[in-house]
Amino acid sequence: MKQFFALSVLAMSMSTSANYLTNYQDPNTDQLIQALNNNRIHIVQLGDSHTAGDSMTEALRSQLQSRYGNGGMGWAMPMYFSGQRMARYGYDNYQWTPISSRRNQNEDYTLGGLIAKPNFSGSTLTIKAKNQEPMQSMTVSIRQSATDGLFKISDADGNHLILEAPIKNDTWQTTTFDAKLPFTLTAEGSMTNTAIGGWWGRSKHELGAIVSSLGINGAELSHWSRWNQNAWQQELATIAPELIILAYGTNEAYNNLSAERIATVLDERIEQIRQASPHSAIMIVSSPEVLKNTAGSCGVRPPTLHAIQEVQRQTAQNKHTLFWDWQSAMGGSCSMKQWMKSGKATKDGVHFTHLGYQQLGRQMADDIISLSALNSSSHLTPPPQMISPSPISIAPSLSTTRTFYQK
């Protein structure tokens, strides 16, 4: 503990702070600030149920878009999954099957760990906007085999398109098309090995903020090992967001994972992300205060929660990332009971109400916006010995909007 405290003091003296956000010399800080000042920023948050509900991220999205403009709808899960929510997307389907890496570890997943499969020719899937949205440039992650058919798409403006994998070789690929939501896919031909991994919506004018929320209930950061690494890295390389947020830790604490294990997984994921998208800044969001038992004035925390929160901060220091202290944003240790009393957290002592998530999302947005007030000279450059990983090689594509993922 003394060693950690000493490291914290040293790191704080070598970092810049803004409210609950600390910058431990992320090498892409200047690019992130430039993106904010240019009114063109894409933030991708990956996490557990706190992310899967898309309430906190919707507040983050709304706050940023009110300042920078609506850059697009961001990521959408491939179809509706029970217990998951998307603030801006809706779905209808006929004869499609949702498959999650939380339950089924024997599938080939790409970024996000959720896939949708059409059951047969004639299956339909409609992607809707819950509010009025401008035309979107939609990038879809799709996997097909040589014998699979195609999808016919019709959108709200009456446009008709064909969607299929650029090369049908059982690898995850992306392809991009323009559509006004809602649009409907109709499967034609064999669909034996066809799968959709997700949708990315960007406004045609391209300026503004985008916040993409990729969460799975019950997820841990280690669960990424269930995904096809080459596939998710290539998809991340294609999207290349300005900021990638890792918001995990609650389930790790509940499952009594050791701090050492958390540090190992965080180190590995940060290296993999930087290899895939070397110009993206990374933010680690620490676990909020959560309770295993709500009895008493403060409740009972999972025994490993404190150690996990500490190792999340220490990893941010060691790996030179941004760090957002969720527990401090709540008011510190012993704050969850007060959040419950004020109607900002639910009775389980783990999750937050819509009101609570909205407050947290707005706070995170304010902290991110505050970075744009800092100029390049406000940030210390990374130590000379820090070497960025080499970018992954991306296979040649048929067009600028298509990337092929190798297994």
Automatic annotation (TrEMBL):
It comes from the Bacteria. Transmembrane segments: none annotated. The keyword Hydrolase applies. Residues 71-184 form the Peptidoglycan O-acetylesterase N-terminal domain. SUPFAM superfamilies: SGNH hydrolase. Keywords: Hydrolase. Coiled coil: none annotated. InterPro entries: Ape1_N, Ester_Hydrolysis_Enzymes, SGNH_hydro, SGNH_hydro_sf. GO terms for molecular function: hydrolase activity, acting on ester bonds. Signal peptide: none annotated. Residues 191-358 form the SGNH hydrolase-type esterase domain. This is GDSL-like Lipase/Acylhydrolase family protein. It comes from Moraxella catarrhalis.
